[in-house]
Amino acid sequence: MGAGGRMSVPTSPKKPEFNSLKRVPYSKPPFTLSEIKKAIPPHCFQRSVLRSFSYLLYDFILASLFYHVATNYFPNLPQALSNVAWPLYWAMQGCILTGVWVIAHECGHHAFSDYQWLDDTVGLILHSSLLVPYFSWKYSHRRHHSNTGSLERDEVFVPKKKSGLRWWAKHFNNPLGRFLSITIQLTLGWPLYLAFNVAGRPYDRFACHYDPYGPIFSDRERLQIYISDAGVLAVAYALYRLVLAKGVGWVISVYGVPLLVVNAFLVMITYLQHTHPSLPHYDSSEWDWMRGALSTVDRDYGILNKVFHNITDTHVAHHLFSTMPHYHAMVATKAIKPILGEYYQFDGMPVYKAIWREAKECLYVEPDEGDKDKGVFWFRNKL
């Protein structure tokens, strides 16, 4: 994650290039949320049960097809072909299941349908099937949306100030250290966040997404945390029964490795949406909701933008209007760009380069020299 910065999306069909670093404006924007909303066609805010289910059905058909081919044909392949076929299955199935994860995420935002009970039922089933505690994550993620860009109250990928870096940070500030950090982040980052709040907001005591009485949740939310835990335990028990019936190798190959791919993608997507050399963070003296919501960046994942239901390249619009269905987000993004102007952030750098650059450039945040009372913090990398 290295040299580069912010640029606007060109109007030509040519793929955008990443040129020079340019910080996002951090002053209060000259437009309001209602003015942004008026620029968006009204139909973009309409949720359709049939259309939402159609995307879920499409994902299920592809996932079932990949499963059928892998379990019925791969065992008969020569070893050399099998060694190629299984990694292809893991990658493709992992991508499709990431799309399923995104639909569950929409349920948590009440963007799937007009019926909260339906959104929660679908979200609980989908997220539990991917070993995610649905209500637990729904509530912590909602607080992330309410506090994006705040150094004190944001929930996840909260950057540290230089004084808050651990002693080992300087030992990882090299190519090998960055490679190890990225590897750990993509493989263990998601379960560590859920279980131990790693990379999450600091609390005054131990925080865990599986603990109904943890500091993340309020009293009125605790019963639903139990329901989330029950959903994950039910799927874990089903996997246990599958291991007894099919063997641990079969379960790992068919389900386990694609799940690792899902976890890696969702960590990468979230990290790259909120980590960029041009993005500011704010302390309580400067933060407000609008500037925090605009301190995000749209990314280009190529064909995976569609596979991931455009959560990757419409994230700015999603933070402004999180109940908007994903199938309207591209139209909305196009509509709000003229209003947002320089406040709209897009980075077309290939994500495999971007994650390396951000790991290199975005180690901690500090105010600019001479501006230590402004409460606006920027990413630095000098240790």
UniProtKB/TrEMBL annotation:
<feature type="transmembrane region" description="Helical">
    <location>
        <begin position="55"/>
        <end position="74"/>
    </location>
</feature>
<keyword id="KW-0812">Transmembrane</keyword>
<keyword id="KW-0276">Fatty acid metabolism</keyword>
<feature type="transmembrane region" description="Helical">
    <location>
        <begin position="86"/>
        <end position="105"/>
    </location>
</feature>
<keyword id="KW-1133">Transmembrane helix</keyword>
<dbReference type="Pfam" id="PF00487">
    <property type="entry name" value="FA_desaturase"/>
</dbReference>
<feature type="transmembrane region" description="Helical">
    <location>
        <begin position="225"/>
        <end position="244"/>
    </location>
</feature>
<keyword id="KW-0560">Oxidoreductase</keyword>
<protein>
    <recommendedName>
        <fullName>Fatty acid desaturase domain-containing protein</fullName>
    </recommendedName>
</protein>
<keyword id="KW-0472">Membrane</keyword>
<comment type="pathway">
    <text>Lipid metabolism; polyunsaturated fatty acid biosynthesis.</text>
</comment>
<comment type="similarity">
    <text>Belongs to the fatty acid desaturase type 1 family.</text>
</comment>
<feature type="domain" description="Fatty acid desaturase">
    <location>
        <begin position="86"/>
        <end position="345"/>
    </location>
</feature>
<dbReference type="InterPro" id="IPR012171">
    <property type="entry name" value="Fatty_acid_desaturase"/>
</dbReference>
<feature type="transmembrane region" description="Helical">
    <location>
        <begin position="250"/>
        <end position="272"/>
    </location>
</feature>
<dbReference type="GO" id="GO:0016020">
    <property type="term" value="C:membrane"/>
</dbReference>
<dbReference type="InterPro" id="IPR021863">
    <property type="entry name" value="FAS_N"/>
</dbReference>
<feature type="transmembrane region" description="Helical">
    <location>
        <begin position="176"/>
        <end position="196"/>
    </location>
</feature>
<keyword id="KW-0443">Lipid metabolism</keyword>
<dbReference type="InterPro" id="IPR005804">
    <property type="entry name" value="FA_desaturase_dom"/>
</dbReference>
<dbReference type="GO" id="GO:0006636">
    <property type="term" value="P:unsaturated fatty acid biosynthetic process"/>
</dbReference>
<dbReference type="GO" id="GO:0016717">
    <property type="term" value="F:oxidoreductase activity, acting on paired donors, with oxidation of a pair of donors resulting in the reduction of molecular oxygen to two molecules of water"/>
</dbReference>
<keyword id="KW-0275">Fatty acid biosynthesis</keyword>
<feature type="domain" description="Fatty acid desaturase N-terminal">
    <location>
        <begin position="25"/>
        <end position="62"/>
    </location>
</feature>
<dbReference type="Pfam" id="PF11960">
    <property type="entry name" value="DUF3474"/>
</dbReference>
<keyword id="KW-0444">Lipid biosynthesis</keyword>
